[in-house]
Amino acid sequence: MKIKVLGPGCANCKTLEARTREALTQLNVNAEIEKVEDYDKIISYGIMRTPGLVIDEKVVVSGRVPTVEEIKKFVNSHLQ
């Protein structure tokens, strides 16, 4: 599983990355996390507001920071 956190490095982006790592730890899931800060790459995912969360090249949320529980649901749906 490959997860990307899209955002320029703002506080919300850092919070999203931390929550994603926490969700993966709680689920005991090993995944590669990549921080994408390049605006052209962020725009290529079709999101207009950051932060964004991409799992296996699918945007699962953008423009807000989901809870750890929400992230766990996103991850679980991609494991099935």
In short:
With 80 residues, the chain is an alpha+beta fold. Helices cover 44% and strands 24% of the residues.
List the main descriptive attributes of the protein structure presented here:
globular, 80 residues, 4-stranded mixed β-sheet, alpha+beta, 44% helix
Write a structural description:
The protein has helices at residues 11-27, 39-44, 68-79, and strands at 2-6, 32-36, 52-55, 58-62. Helix 1 (11-27) crosses helix 3 (68-79). It is α+β, with helices and mostly antiparallel strands. Helix content is 44%, strand content 24%. The model has no long low-confidence stretch (mean pLDDT 96). The radius of gyration is 11 Å and the shape is globular.
The helix/strand series, from N terminus to C terminus, equals: EHEHEEH
Biggest beta sheet attributes: 4 strands, mixed
Query: How far is it from the N-terminal to the C-terminal residue, by CA?
Result: 12 Å
Alpha-carbon Rg, integer: 11 Å
As residue ranges, the low-confidence spans are none
Categorize the overall geometry: globular
Helix content: 40-55%
Main structural class: alpha+beta
Number of helices: 3
Strand order of the largest sheet: 2-1-3-4
What is the element layout, followed by pairings?
Layout: E1 2-6, H1 11-27, E2 32-36, H2 39-44, E3 52-55, E4 58-62, H3 68-79
Parallel strand pairs: 1-2
Antiparallel strand pairs: 1-3, 3-4
Helix pairs in contact: 1-3
